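Example 9 (inverse folding). The structure is encoded as follows.
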């Protein structure tokens, strides 16, 4: 069994208390790798290394252009090692190899995007209203960043944090999910090979008590970038009260997808399948609240059912597989309980709803027809291949149903009416709206939500500024000494 160590201050090491965990392959249910877990002492060591790196001339005095070149180098190494990283992620989390290879290869563009922005972080000369004064601003690295990523899209969600943080000149302690940390522990080798000085990036993992809590409440942490669930986020926010760290949260969602009668139904069916069965439904932007105009409801259900009959569930390493296993047995249990409750509430399972008779955490793609908005599968985040559809009659009703949620990460709508596309997308309470498509990402496009889907944005031009602080400098150019010290200038 392959064993992976923590990466702290440029060195591989075991955890201070010797704790080791194993990770299971979700497609077989068998343990396949072990990894060291961080103790509070290891968290202290990683944060201390990051703090030292910020003062080390090797990083502190490196030009922004040179930092950008390191990010370009990292992008090249990721692409060169995409297959290795993709296979590790598939073995660890059960994601389709086709997707892990594609996603890992594409995240290189995120690092290039932020590498290109590294020497474009500018200040400004202020047209100050005080004669004889010169005032200007500069943006400085915010400091030590605690970046916490989940298991379901590790390379992508790491890039959205690490890219802008390093471009800004910060130092990062990356906490990988203990559910499937192997790809990130391997990724640390590429950071080192790219030439980042020791301590600029450390990669650790471990449980909440010994790793996540000490990291998020650490007094030397200046910024927290967290992706995960709302309940865990509440603890992160409470912990940040200990250090006043600037915090961004990218949380879960219960995203609506609105299909109007004038939509291209083939495109809509594919969009709903992508939003619910893509990544086995293990996506924070899963479009798991399908709202379909009543006159096309039956036709769209039939079309989706026909397509679902051809979905292949199986080994995520096989190219022909469309849906792989769920990452954990706990997900399977929770989904089955939620489906049972939905049926008791009057919902109808059109297809799926059962486990597959094979080793691993395999769940059949499932379609739930919901008579009301109170059905459980329309209310809670499923994180599995479960699509829930409900009919609506009018545009106003569709918007009201779409916005009747405590979340607000993503949304989608399918229509051939351009005016409606603008009108409805503007009124949907979500940080992302896809029109006549779904589940598209780019380093150029901001990513984040409203309400219980979190706050702050990742991706896009502004994200790099979120890893900086603005300093204002005043210079007396008049040549005259300060006068009355008791009166504000």
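The amino acid assigned to each position is listed next.
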């Amino acid at each position: 069994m392959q064993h992976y160590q923590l990466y702290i201050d440029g060195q591989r090491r075991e955890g201070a208390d010797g704790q080791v965990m194993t990770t299971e392959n979700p497609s077989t249910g068998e343990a396949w790798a072990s990894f060291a877990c961080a103790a509070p002492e290891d968290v202290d060591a990683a944060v201390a290394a990051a703090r030292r790196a910020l003062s080390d001339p090797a990083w502190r005095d490196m030009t922004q252009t040179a930092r950008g070149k390191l990010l370009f180098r990292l992008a090249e190494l990721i692409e060169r090692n995409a297959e290795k990283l993709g296979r590790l992620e598939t073995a660890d989390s059960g994601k389709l190899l086709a997707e892990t290879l594609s996603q890992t290869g594409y995240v290189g563009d995120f690092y290039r995007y932020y590498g290109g922005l590294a020497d474009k972080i500018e200040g400004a000369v202020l047209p100050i209203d005080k004669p004889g004064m010169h005032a200007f601003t500069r943006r400085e690295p915010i400091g030590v960043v605690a970046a916490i990523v989940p298991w379901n899209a590790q390379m992508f969600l790491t890039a959205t944090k690490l890219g802008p943080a390093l471009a800004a000149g910060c130092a990062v302690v990356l906490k990988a999910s203990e559910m499937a940390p192997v790809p990130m522990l391997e990724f640390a080798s590429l950071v080192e090979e790219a030439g980042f000085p020791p301590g600029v990036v450390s990669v650790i993992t471990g449980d909440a008590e010994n790793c996540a809590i000490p990291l998020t409440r650490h007094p030397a942490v200046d910024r927290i970038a967290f992706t995960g669930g709302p309940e865990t986020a509440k603890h992160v926010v409470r912990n940040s009260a200990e250090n006043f760290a600037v915090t961004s949260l990218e949380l879960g969602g219960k995203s609506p997808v609105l299909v109007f009668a004038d939509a291209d139904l083939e495109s809509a069916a594919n969009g709903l399948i992508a939003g619910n069965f893509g990544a086995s439904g293990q996506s924070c932007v899963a479009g798991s609240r399908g709202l379909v105009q009543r006159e096309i409801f039956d036709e769209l259900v039939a079309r989706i059912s026909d397509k679902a009959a051809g979905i292949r569930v199986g080994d995520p390493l096989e190219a022909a597989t469309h849906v792989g296993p769920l990452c954990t047995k706990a997900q399977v249990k929770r989904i089955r309980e939620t489906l049972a409750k939905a049926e008791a509430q009057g919902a109808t399972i059109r297809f799926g709803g059962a486990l597959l008779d094979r080793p691993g955490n395999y769940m059949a793609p499932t379609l739930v027809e919901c008579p009301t908005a109170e059905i459980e599968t329309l209310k809670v985040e499923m994180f599995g291949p479960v699509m829930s559809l409900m009919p609506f009659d009018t545009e106003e009703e569709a918007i009201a149903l779409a916005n009747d949620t405590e979340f607000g990460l993503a949304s989608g709508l399918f229509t051939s009416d351009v005016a409606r596309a603008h009108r409805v997308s503007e009124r949907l309470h979500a940080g992302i709206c896809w029109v006549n498509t779904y589940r598209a990402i780019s380093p150029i496009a901001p990513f984040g939500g409203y309400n219980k889907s979190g706050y702050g944005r990742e991706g896009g031009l502004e994200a790099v500024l979120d890893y900086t602080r603005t300093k204002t400098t005043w210079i007396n150019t008049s040549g005259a000494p300060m006068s009355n010290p008791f009166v504000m200038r």
